[in-house]
Amino acid sequence: MPDLIAQGVQQQHRWRRTLPLAQSVVLGRARETWVVSWDDQISRRHVELLWTGSHIVATKLPTASNPVFFEGHAVQDFELRDGGRFVIGTTTFTVTEDEALVSLDVPQPVNEQTFSPEYLRQIAFRNADQRIEVLSRLPEIIRSGGSEQELFVQVVNLLLSGNPRANAAAIVRVDDDQHGQPTVLCWDSRLSTGHPFRPSERLIRQAIAKEESVVHVWDCQHAAATPHYTISEEVDWAFATPVAADSCRGWTLYISGGSNLITQNGTKVSDPLDLRDDVKFTELAATTLGNLLDVRQLAGLSQFLSPVVLEALVGKDPDVVLAPREAEVSVLFCDLRGFSRKSEQLAHDLLGLLERVSSAMGVMTHCILDQTGVVGDFHGDAAMGFWGWPFTQNDAIERACRAALAIRAEFSDSGRKSDDPLADFQIGLGLATGNAVAGKLGSDDQVKVTVFGPVVNLASRLENMTKTLRAGILLDEQSANFFRHHVSPDVGRVRRLAIVRPYGMQQAVEVSELLPPEEHYSQLTNAHIEIYENAVDALLSGQWDEAFELLHQVPADDRAKDFLTVFIAQHNRTPPDHWDGVIPIDFK
């Protein structure tokens, strides 16, 4: 496919782009065009170009205020082929069909030098101001770059600007651990020779293998057997600098030049050390490019991965960080109550209902993330978060409990405001701690970062049991014991509710309720909690009359006590034969 080269008055005012087949493009200064930012005589939308496969049809648009000159005449419509050019303002546009082909057909260099990143950091630029000024444009290029191809064009242009003695620059990618065919992602050349631009595959692979910049200098007078590999005559040179970043593995920045490389005394260069300023600039560009692309990639994942996971990925191999592994985790399930009823009531306004549910889910995820948790999954109107992966967290239980209390507080406050999106919604939360497999889980077709294991099922069961036990937040025994002994009552309080056997499970579970601090939930004082737990002890020991009397000393508006009170009353305050203290729950 043909390329279009735009060249302004100054050397750095330049770009090269490939024209797509049967797809029109517009030259101009508007964001959605092929932008010619340096020339104020070009309108926002100036010329439309269409490559038909045999020639390019060019049309001046009605929005263009300045003329388009083709073959010395102002024109409205014209056709372009290889070598054709036109002018707008101070910018010349040229069509070329030069190719870039990575080639092994390159002779051995007469001189070679390897530059390590450590060495390049130690040497000083001989013209630092110009180099640094060019390099300072790179963050803005990364930030504002739209498509990947647009980014490539801008980076290649920057490489030519920062290496004024270079004739050509390219971004080359080698896939599959260097076994794949190198691909030229983007390139540009200041020269038009009629021959393909042929970056040296040997040089590119050598730089990637060594993870360092490598310079080759050739003497073309002794390479007559393969003269077509160069873009100039006599002394030719090139260097390749690998981009060490997870987001651009296998990328190499390739810079080449010809006999225009001259020393201060006027002789042509054969010593790679004369290129060290150029290599240092390109090394800095490669490092900056890689770091910024890593950050941009992580930012793009921020909607899909929790911040703590993004933190773990920085500078690491994602396949290693996200690989499934066993870890002790605390899992929190949050379920939105009242959703089915609201769905029926708001069947005429499903978008409004979706907005309200999104607000509710937003509260859940915000509170989980605020405590450095991982949002593992969404199940309809429920969310799941977990702690203890990808980093070990000794305070995982406390963080999970803090998140649960924050969610409860948000819904409680919102419930007092009739016009709040969360009004009429209730929340149920279940939290359990134990071993699980965490990481990137799924099938060959689809994966997600989540957690798997019995502890996840238990947390889900606890969340479901909040309806039966009439408690807002339920904890398993391990979570409750940790909170009771390691977390201040100013954060929250734990009340042991009962020992139950959840539906479908063989093992009994001691269930506790997590409550806000007494100052924030004064209707149930610490004294009331002590009375309730004494009633549980009496129940377990078979003293049901005493348990029944103690439960009636707990405030009547405490819904959780109703579960035990009703259970005792149903059995006429008499323990069944072989009473083991476990209350079976016969329904989900």
Question: How does this model look, in words?
Answer:
By secondary structure, the chain is α+β, with helices and mostly antiparallel strands. The chain has 3 domains: about 5-95, Tumour Suppressor Smad4 (Sandwich), CATH 2.60.200; about 110-300, GAF domain (Beta-Lactamase), CATH 3.30.450.40; about 315-585, Nucleotide cyclase, GGDEF domain (Alpha-Beta Plaits). It has 16 helices and 26 strands. The strands form 4 sheets. Strands 18, 19, 20, 21, 22, 23, 24, 25 and 26 form a 9-stranded mixed beta sheet that branches. A 6-stranded antiparallel beta sheet has the order 2-1-11-10-7-8. The longest helix is centred in the middle third of the chain and has 25 residues, at about 275-300. Mean pLDDT is about 85; it is low at about 220-235 and about 260-265.
Summarize the structure.
The protein is α+β, with helices and mostly antiparallel strands. It has 16 helices and 26 strands.
Q: What is the CATH-assigned architecture of the largest domain?
A: 2-Layer Sandwich
Report the count of strand segments: 26
CATH topology of the largest domain: Alpha-Beta Plaits
**Helix count, per DSSP?**
16
Helix content: 25-40%
Q: Class by helix and strand content?
A: alpha+beta
Distance between the termini: 64 Å
Low-confidence stretches: 222-235, 261-267
CATH C-level class of the largest domain: Alpha Beta
Rounded radius of gyration (Å):
35 Å
Would you spell out the secondary-structure blueprint of this structure?
Elements (H helix, E strand, L loop, with lengths): L2 E5 L6 E5 L6 E4 L5 E2 L9 E7 L4 E5 L7 E3 L2 E3 L1 E4 L4 E4 L2 E6 L14 E5 L1 H6 L5 H8 L2 H7 L3 H15 L5 E6 L9 E7 L11 H10 L2 E7 L15 E8 L8 E7 L18 H25 L6 H7 L4 H4 L3 E13 L1 H7 L4 H21 L3 E6 L2 E6 L8 H19 L11 E17 L4 E6 L1 H16 L3 E3 L1 H10 L6 E9 L7 E7 L10 H15 L3 H8 L9 H10 L12 E2 L4
Parallel strand pairs: 3-4, 21-23, 24-26
Antiparallel strand pairs: 1-2, 1-11, 3-5, 5-6, 6-9, 7-8, 7-10, 10-11, 12-15, 13-14, 13-17, 15-16, 16-17, 18-20, 18-21, 19-20, 21-22, 23-25, 24-25
